[in-house]
From TrEMBL:
Increases the formation of ribosomal termination complexes and stimulates activities of RF-1 and RF-2. It binds guanine nucleotides and has strong preference for UGA stop codons. It may interact directly with the ribosome. The stimulation of RF-1 and RF-2 is significantly reduced by GTP and GDP, but not by GMP. Keywords: Cytoplasm, GTP-binding, Nucleotide-binding, Protein biosynthesis. Belongs to the TRAFAC class translation factor GTPase superfamily. Classic translation factor GTPase family. PrfC subfamily. Pfam families: EF-G_D2, GTP_EFTU, RF3_C. It comes from the Bacteria. HAMAP family: Rel_fac_3. Residues 8-275 form the Tr-type G domain. It is found in: Cytoplasm. It comes from Sunxiuqinia elliptica. The lineage of its organism: Bacteria, Pseudomonadati, Bacteroidota, Bacteroidia, Marinilabiliales. The gene is prfC. This is Peptide chain release factor 3. The keyword Cytoplasm applies. GTP binds at residues 17-24, 85-89, 139-142.
Amino acid sequence: MGFIEEIKRRRTFGIVSHPDAGKTTLTEKLLLFGGAIRVAGAVKSNKIKKGATSDFMEIERQRGISVATSVMGFEYRNYKINILDTPGHQDFQEDTFRTLTAVDSVIIVIDAAKGVEPQTEKLMNVCRMRKTPVIVFVNKLDRPSQDSFDLLDEIENQLQIKTRPLSWPINSGPDFKGVYNIYNRNLRLFNANVQEIEDSIEFKDINSPELENYIGDDASVLREELELVEGVYPEFDHEEYQKGNLAPVFFGSALYNFGVQELLDAFVEIAPYPRSSQTEEREIKPDEKDFTGFIFKIHANIDPNHRSRIAFVKICSGKFERNKAYKHIRSGKQLRISSPTAFMASQKEIIEEAYPGDIIGVPDSGNLVIGDSITAGEEIHFKGLPSFSPELFRYIENADPMKSKQLSKGIDQLMDEGVAQLFTSQFNGRKIIGTVGQLQFEVIEYRLLHEYGAKCRFENLAMHKACWIECDDPKTLSEFKKRKHQKMATDKRGRDVFMADSGFILQMAQDEFKDVKFHFTSEF
Ligand code: G4P
């Protein structure tokens, strides 16, 4: 197969949802179709169960599983599909947002009874910002659901995207009869007792009286609703979908593996193959000859017996080849990757080559960090990896003086993984950890102990915001730093950060120093 064909057959996407809407279940069913797994139940949920925030074993279990299921590649109908998993728990949103920079499209799962939930909205905002094409899967039709037209309205209003149903449910809950596939014009009947995929029934003309034989009186309702659908929604516009302006909508029940194949079949046909990527210097097209890629995720200490890390590299252009000399742009050093791994479902294997859209795992001993660009030689820097404004702060203290080396090494590596951000006070040298969620402190404490043998203690710190400051005039900057000396800190890259105690104090500082720029994330 030629290089261009390899690119065009790739579909790299993420499945996102509010926790419990059915992301894990849908992922599993998709893998079943790809033959990547044989039996249901093989994909473990990597979510942290509700109320388990103090359950450290749960965190560990989640980590173990999430390595295996971070990227799941499989073949389906001559398409190479890469599913990128995203953590459901909102304390790990950062990880999800970063992963979304490596996908070409997204499937959003919505619970048919609950409709659009807060996390769905946040995730959609990220997709909209990046103009990522999205398909919506309305799940759990086997349970009493909201009216389908109402759901579509809710999606349009709350997710701010036009919709176009490509399948249509016949009732829901105990009366759920099946879905009519508008895209392929056929009917599939639901039978809660059978989880096998039965053949669907062709129905080019739903006005045929034969429809009554299958769904009885519901036939007339279906005809009416479909007529309304055709009246209200314009024809599915592929281009609008690919631009991120229009979301095709499918209905089904992931648990019963129902409506999933319709989704997958339409997905491979309409979802985009790898798209262009933005760098600070220029746009990179996937079909360019030279290899380029960037790191969007790092996983450390997968095997507790080895100090190993894996960097996840998204290939953006060119063919990747094992053992070829590439350039690690941040260090300027040559990088020869001798054992890159592919993520085919849950098994990892060394690969010789990979194509745009693919994700490869690169073993690393601590030189790679999130956001790094790797190329065949060209000096380019991929951009668009979001950076976050920490919201919770705590001092971190060493609780075991014999292990201070292990502690600082552990902290360093966890920060590289993007678990949290580290600041060092310029006033008293104390280390401050900033996170976006409570759970991250527990993860840090647990992992420092179990992976580095280091004990830490946190001390509360009432802090409003970390502000990266910049000023063209060195005199003003130095005056600012002198005046705010007690509140100045340094980030991991040695930059100045003003730690504002409260919104009021921040406002005062901004009023007083008009020439100083305050940034709330580390990328500006
Ligand atoms: P998530 O990854 O989005 O958080 O959701 P997940 O797939 O884990 O699904 C959440 C719960 O909803 C699970 O039940 C799952 O079995 C159920 N579920 C998923 N899809 C459907 C569906 O189409 N119909 C129905 N009726 N239920 C569905 P649970 O009891 O919370 O978890 P488990 O103990 O069964 O794993």
